[in-house]
Amino acid sequence: MNIIGGKLRSHLLLKNSVFAILLLLFLVALLGYLALKTRVQWDVSQNGRNSLSQASIEILEKLNGPVKVTAYATKQHVEFGDIRQIISNFVLLYQRAKPDVMLTFIDPAERPELAKAAGVSVNGEMVITFNDRREYLTVINEQAFTNVLMRLARSGEKRVMGLTGHGERKLDGDANHDLGEFGRQLLVNGFKSQALNLVMEPDIPSDISTLIIASPQADLMEGEVAKLLAYIEQGGNLLWLVDQEPLRGLLPLAEKLHLMLIPGVVVDPRAKQLNAPITFALGASYGRHPITDHFDYITVFPFARQITVNESDDWKNISLVEVAQHGWVESDELDHDISFDPMRDVAGPIRIAVALTRIVEDREQRIVVVGSGHFLANTYLGNGNNLDFGINLINWLAGDENLIAIQPRATHDRSLVLSESMLTVLVVGFLIVLPLLFLVSGIYIWWRRSR
């Protein structure tokens, strides 16, 4: 009986073992199949640095066709070591989102003729090609790489011209009031900026993406204004930055757009709470528009003026920015104590930016008027998210509102600052207390074993 019971138990044990092994093999095969057919990943690194931002993914989705990346890198870099592995890991982030991003390595030391033919001069430089267009990149980060892809995604050349000849803010100027840094960012984002002097040019080119008028300091001649009005009449796009100065002969343009530019400076008491001048209007309330879609950031508009649009059958207008919900438009000079006068001042909220559209020859004409040229000036461009807002303005005016500017994700502060008392505790704990504990425990264990 015991023999039979022992055989039965052995048989059952064997049967259960075989079943467990087969089940394990099935689970392993199933996991292998799922891993082959399904891609799932979680980025648990700080600030998500091992994955792409949603903005980069959206740019990749707009690239219909393969992207070729040719990296001219030696097998070992003097400073960075295995630079090929660094490039491979970086490009892999893009290949996960777009499998037809192809990476090829060429050793410039072994094939110098290929590097010379490609115009490459830096070890590790990448040449990115899309639709027979190419861009060069010498740095490895998401902002730079995605901006290259954005430039390649633009259809044709996008030209932005800035009016000059009347003391306007220059797109290539380095003075505090100029727009030089903004102009350089336009270049990074795939736009080509040029100056336009209406005295020298017979007409405003019809093939430009956008004309910028930035705070002229001298009156335009009647002939120049006539050229501007003809440009608007033919459907040209315009970004008009209006400061507190007189319109300098541009009143006919304001009348053409049905604008009322009320004198006075916007006063925003919230700015004083943030240790900013009270004449800095803080933008946080935005209208529903492609320019401000998903734009949930603070913008700063120094010395802004109110923009009012008279309703008309010609233009459709949408408010872009409203400021000073608890402020007002100060009508008096700013060299005295600023206070609200209900008899003279206009209470907030104040509209300081507006977008105008109309249909001209089956095409949408786009115009933006902003009551502050200072917000894009070199001095104030770094305040808030002024740069992002400015790039969004140009993208929309150029018809590329589906392309956005990729800004670097904020890096969390990794520094560890300890007080003097905490440092003392750490030193005493690690250098005195812990060694003594180990010594006492060792003596105790030796004493127990000796007994």
Automatic annotation (TrEMBL):
Residue ranges annotated for the ABC-type uncharacterised transport system domain, each copy included: 158-381
Quote any Pfam family the record assigns: ABC_transp_aux
Q: Where are the transmembrane segments?
A: 12-36, 422-447
Protein keywords: Membrane, Transmembrane, Transmembrane helix
Ranges for the DUF7088 domain? 46-118
Would the keyword Hydrolase be found if you checked this record's keyword annotation?
no
Please give the superkingdom of this protein's source.
Bacteria
Among its keywords, does the record have rRNA processing? no
Protein name listed in UniProt: ABC-type uncharacterized transport system involved in gliding motility, auxiliary component
Protein species of origin: Nitrosomonas cryotolerans ATCC 49181
